[in-house]
Amino acid sequence: MRHLINILDLSVGEIDELIARADDIMARPDAYSEVCRGKILATLFFEPSTRTRLSFESAMLSLGGSVLGFSEAASSSAAKGESVSDTLEVVSSYCDIIAMRHPKEGAPLVGCAHSSVPVINAGDGGHYHPTQTLTDLLTIRRETGRFDGLTIGLCGDLKFGRTVHSLIAAMSRYKGVRFVLISPDELKLPSFIKQEYIKERGIEYSQCSSLDEVMGEVDILYMTRVQRERFFNEEDYLRLKDSYILDAEKMKAAKRDMIVMHPLPRVNEISTAVDSDPRACYFRQAKYGRYIRMALIMKMLGVDRAKGE
Ligand code: NCD
User: What residue ranges define each of the domains in the chain, with the CATH number in brackets?
Assistant: First the structure.
């Protein structure tokens, strides 16, 4: 039995297969509408979510399966002091697959050791978020047509932004990729991510605090929200929250075929005036999340055929 805790749990070849499957699901959704009939997905969300939880649920329902779960720790026995291990021990006997989000780094890894069904990490604290990365990879492939040779600007909260950490890990496996890390000093990429996925792999990167300076050189601009819930004090958050605001004026300096991505939710970091720019693809990105999660659920449940295949 396999779990998905870190994006690198999947090989490059498996990611290609998931993307091909997601493309096929988008092209002919009816062929997939019954393939997981009788299967149950549990979504255990100990932390708030809109897209991740609902796209997981929508994905399972679109495959003909069923869903159960909770959307906040307060409505689960965690509020009574139950451990993650005990919760997983029990819930895994009620379902066939689990998607779990938790504020503590490593909680899904602990949980999967106590689960009798596959566990998917749907975000663990400021650590990793592999299914957002699958969504991001599908977006990059569909919007730019390639993975190799891309210059990727990552902007905002690179310290606590788990989607950034997983995306860097994933992109570090492709040829000719270059990272441009744009953040205030206090929100720089953690050294373990930089060391393991950039330096040790000999990947080219640069670091700066000005978005304007690098606007014209990136093929992808991945904007992120300052992660308020991970700050120790509100003052620091207030000081840093508006460090970057992408607006129509800044977009003028960008390449004509550059794409703007954002895992969402957006707070202030992208002006709504950018939404109508064809290079803004964050809402399409959110939509792709449903299809790549359908592909992932199928794979993890061992369902490898659409209707008629
Ligand atoms: C992200 C997350 O939860 O890490 N959201 C998401 O899953 N799309 C990004 C964020 O919350 O800023």
Answer: 7-128+289-301 (3.40.50.1370), 130-286 (3.40.50.1370)
